[in-house]
Amino acid sequence: MPFRPVKEQLDILLRGVIEIVPQEELEKKLQKSYETGIPLRIKLGVDPTAPDVHFGHTVVMRKLRQFQDLGHTVVLIVGDYTAMIGDPSGRNKMRPRLSHEQVLENAKEYQEQFFKVVRRDQVEIRYNGEWFSKLPFNKVTELMGQFTVAQMLEREDFNNRYTSNQPISLHEFMYPMMQGYDSVAIASDVELGGTDQKFNVLRGRDLQLVEGMDPQIGMFMPILLGTDGKVKMSKSIGNYVGLNEPADVMYHKIYSLADNLIENWFELLTTVPLDEIHLMVEKIAKGEMNPNEAKHLLAINIVSQYYGEAEAEAAAKKERDVHSGNAIPSDAVECKLNPGSYGLLDLLAEIGAFPSKGEARRMIQNGGVRIRFKVESDFNINDKVFRNDPPANIIPLDDQWFEWKVDDPQAFVKFEKSSFVVQIGKRKFYKVNF
User: Which residue ranges does the chain devote to CATH 3.10.290.10?
Assistant: First the structure.
């Protein structure tokens, strides 16, 4: 297909981009591509040190998709060799080293999620073991000779570790060289990355120049803040939204987003025109629009990208049903207990709802623990089974379910054949089976 004029391409490609190094060369490359009909080669390198992909990763993936939609070729480099070292960017200690088998297994799962955003038909997948496994040692030393220890110690992560007497292994210094050489091996025109990748991406330009090649351009995307609106999205912190999460869980996490992220997430994770986003933000600031209404629109838009509009609307309905007590979210924790009698605090500790009985007691006293059980079950509270005329703290939800708003930390329960649901706070659920 013919390429769009360069200005039209730039209008699309510059959205959400923090920095382009150097920007004037991007326009020249796009112009040359437009005139020759030869697509640009857009590089993304990934080290599948872990298989899970979250929204933070999709910021760059969405930019790849934009390049694809404009007719360019995406080259995904799976770092089966670099992952065994691990990118030191932003680290205060050395990454644990993975085996080649672990990396390849992670890569399979990564690609499944990658292709939820990026189209398969315009992607060239390369494993960097293809060239590193054959690179002679004299070539390695030649490449390492292009970098100095002083350069490496200019990096904040290495400098912090060095000044605090944290060990830095020599093989970690090889990582930027290896990422840079990937650009030589696949002759990339543009490399995408987060702002934390700037040092490594620019090494690709350096090595391409050494090899007499037309150097790539670095295009840097912002680091997406997690749902708490405070720090980088991370699974270990728990402020993430995963691509493999069920539609209702995805919707809930977006709907519960910190208000200060609405504009940023709309810009980076949707194609809603910027003027519409700015108008929405102005209305929120003036009190003319509830932030929850904007977050609903954001959640519907994003969930629809992965599950379709019908599933997104169903997820929104389920969110309402969960809040009204008529549904349980898909990410409820499944627990197994032996039938019998339990002190309530012991039961809550047994299912892992609280790290201590003290915390469980405080949550009960604050009204934050509820238990749902079936009307016709043998679920017993303090030697009583409730079917007719339950007390005020046991509410009929419908013809089948009761909800007990727990108010007595010293209560005990007994069950023989019943499953039940424990709710902690607004949205932490445990499905207890026997």
Answer: 333-433
